[in-house]
Automatic annotation (TrEMBL):
Enzyme class: isomerase
A cellular component annotation (GO) from this entry: cytosol
GO molecular function: N-acylglucosamine-6-phosphate 2-epimerase activity
Region Disordered: start-end pairs: 224-244
Family as reported in the entry's similarity comment: Belongs to the NanE family.
Chain's role: Converts N-acetylmannosamine-6-phosphate (ManNAc-6-P) to N-acetylglucosamine-6-phosphate (GlcNAc-6-P).
Protein name: Putative N-acetylmannosamine-6-phosphate 2-epimerase
Documented EC number(s): 5.1.3.9
NCBIfam families cross-referenced by the UniProt entry: PRK01130.1
Record keywords, A-Z: Carbohydrate metabolism, Isomerase
Organism listed in the record: Lacrimispora amygdalina
InterPro entries registered for this protein in UniProt: Aldolase_TIM, NanE, RibuloseP-bd_barrel
Superkingdom classification of source: Bacteria
């Protein structure tokens, strides 16, 4: 394991700076400024999606980057760095850690998780990898197969974990206790109190995204929580977004 990356991330907050094409902040430049703001706020690392965003962020901040490529393949549910093609692109870009879907779902290249991990480990033996998991068994399997970091990223986002309460503190606790790997808490952490609870559960580091870097969703949470009036312009934008 890269000791420098390990020491920089251990016990720290990793801020996820991502925006999809249908979102208002979709721009590599904007994501780089988000990352810069997070760095100034004390973030230990950045999680980012796509080669263009990662490249821009690398030129803007001097922090470890967890890189992913979200790529949809027809007929498959896995989206986060699902094939060797995306892994190769991220290795070429030079990200510190590559996160990938390590759920039990089939990968688009027809590989089961075990085969996929064996392939990437064989081809890129010196690259650090993070397993995005949804259940205990997936995290334990990824750990046994040699993945460097175990994440709770996909708890609540697979069809068999949709009823999970987030953040999934029990999953964090069990994987931290049993996997023998650094566990990165991710998913549903919306407040400093929840972040503190994740660390108390045994998290080695934690990722927070929407609660920091997605102002549209944060605005909606405030409006919904306070049951206040929704502005007409917001309604119009939402209708346009739904039509895309």
């Amino acid at each position: 394991m890269d000791k420098a990356v390990y020491s920089l991330l251990a016990g720290g907050l990793i801020v996820s700076c991502q925006a999809l094409p249908e979102e208002p902040l979709f721009s590599s430049y904007i994501m780089s400024r988000m990352a810069y703001a997070a760095m100034e706020g004390g973030a230990a690392g950045i999680r980012a999606n796509s080669i263009s965003d990662i490249h821009e962020i690398k030129n803007t901040v001097d922090l470890p980057i967890i890189g992913i490529i979200k790529q949809k393949y027809k007929g498959f549910e896995t989206v986060i760095t699902p094939t060797i093609t995306e892994v190769t692109a991220l290795v070429s870009e030079g990200v510190d850690i590559i996160a990938l879907d390590c759920t039990r779902r089939l990968h688009p290249d027809g590989h089961k998780l075990e085969d996929f991990i064996m392939e990437i480990r064989s081809k890129f033996p010196d690259q650090l990898f993070m397993a995005d998991c949804s259940i205990y068994e997936e995290g334990m399997l990824a750990a046994r197969l040699g993945i460097d970091f175990i994440g709770t990223t996909l708890s609540g986002y697979t069809h068999y974990t949709r009823n999970a309460v987030l953040p999934n503190l029990e999953l964090i606790k069990r994987l931290s206790s049993d996997s023998g790997k650094p566990v990165i808490a991710e998913g549903g952490i919306k407040t400093p109190e929840q972040l503190k609870e994740a660390f108390k559960a045994g998290a080695w580091a934690a990722v927070v995204g929407s609660a920091i870097t997605r102002p549209r969703e944060i605005t909606r949470d405030f409006i919904t929580g306070a049951k206040c009036r929704t502005g007409g312009k917001t309604d119009k934008r939402e209708r346009q977004s739904d039509e895309r």
